Amino acid sequence: MAPGRFNDTPPPSHWPSEIIYLTKPRLSARFPPSLTPLLLPSSSTTVTTFAPRPFKHPSHLTIKRVVDKSHPAFGQFGLFANKKIKDDELVIPYLGVLHVTLAPVDDDDATSTVATEEDEHSSSDYDISLLRMSASDPRNPFGADGEKGGRHISIGVDAAQMGNAARFINDYRGVRPSGPNSEFRMGRGEGGEARMEIWTLKGKGGVGKGEEILVSYGKAWWGARKG
Fold this sequence. Notes:
Strands 2-6-8-7 form a 4-stranded mixed β-sheet, with no helix packed on it. 4% of the residues lie in helices and 27% in strands. It is globular. The chain has helices spanning 118-121, 219-223; strands at 20-21, 26-27, 61-65, 77-81, 90-94, 97-104, 127-133, 151-158, 162-163, 170-171, 182-188, 194-200, 214-215. The protein has one domain (21-42, 52-219): Beta Complex (Beta-clip-like), CATH 2.170.270.10. The two termini are 37 Å apart. The protein has 227 residues and is mostly beta strands. This is SET domain-containing protein. Residues 59-218 form the SET domain.
């Protein structure tokens, strides 16, 4: 089966052939249907299914191989601005596979039979958290249940095998001493569905033409990769 056969649309320039290109997020085949409402518009009574609208690759962004030998991602790819991007502006949503991990309230409880994909995604460098919900939250369908104790919910977005250009955004460390120029934010798609997005930072001057989009991966990301 040819790589890229299941791309949503023809990918942008410099897209790796082994990665599936997405214009909208995909639910994991093992995503519990009972959790789908958590992704839908919170105030809507008409939207009952997860059906995000496609997002076209922004013309002001380019995927390029990093050629600066001092860059921590030298030889890999980065995402760059073709034109000035203003302060506090949406750069691009972060698309990938939406998956779920259900963690027992009691760490000693290993009796859960609910299918999750913790092992598949836990080691991915492209997996970011979208939503976390305590077992005590009344919206949690796997919540506290007597002696079973319930399950905490963690919904993530993994772009390791399929995603959009946002997967190439690098961390600012070792690249931009003054700090990141963009950040991850929880947002909503055109249909109101929950999604993770990258925005330029407010009051930091935006991103200039030719500059790389850079975020902070966060202490947890780096901490999990020490050693």
